[in-house]
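Weekly modeling sync, notes
Attendees: S.R. (lead), two postdocs, one rotation student

Agenda item 3: backlog of single-chain predictions. S.R. asked that every request posted to the team notebook include the full sequence so nobody has to chase files. The rotation student volunteered to paste the first one in as an example of the format we agreed on. Action items at the bottom.

Example entry:
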Amino acid sequence: MVTRYGTEGSQGAGGQALPFASAVAADGWLYVSGQTPMLDGEIIDGGIVAQSTLAIQRCLDIVAQAGFSREDIVHMKVILTDARDFPSFNAVFRRFFGDAPPARICCVADLVVDCRVEVDVTCFNAVKR
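Predicted structure, as returned to the notebook:
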C-alpha cells in the first residue's frame, strides 16, 4: 500500500500550489520531499543556521505527521548553495541527531528557490511494513 501525505494545500514560493506530495510511505519506508526554510510560502530571513534549523524541523514535522519518528530516519540528502556553509550546517545537524545520526550526503548546487539549504529524509520502520 502506498500512502501520500501533503498533496493538498502544500505551497511553494509566492504561495503557489506544489504538484507533489510532501511525503510518500510504502512498505515500511517513508520518503520525504526536499524541504526548504519556508514559512507561509516565503523563505525566512537569516543565515545558514536559521535556514538549516527550519528545513530539518520541517522534515521532522512531516516524519511525525506520517507516524514515523526521528529514530526511523536512515538517510538525509543535503543541498547547500555555498560550500562555506558546511561547518555551520554540521553544527545544526549535530544538535538534531547527536550520537545517532542517519547516513547522509551533502552537495553544493543552485536551488530553484532563493535559499541556502534544502534537505530531504528517508525513513524505515519495520513495524509499518
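Discussion: group reviewed the output briefly. Strands lie at 2-5, 23-26, 29-35, 38-39, 42-43, 73-80, 103-108, 117-124.
Action items: rotation student to repeat for the remaining queue; S.R. to check formatting next week.
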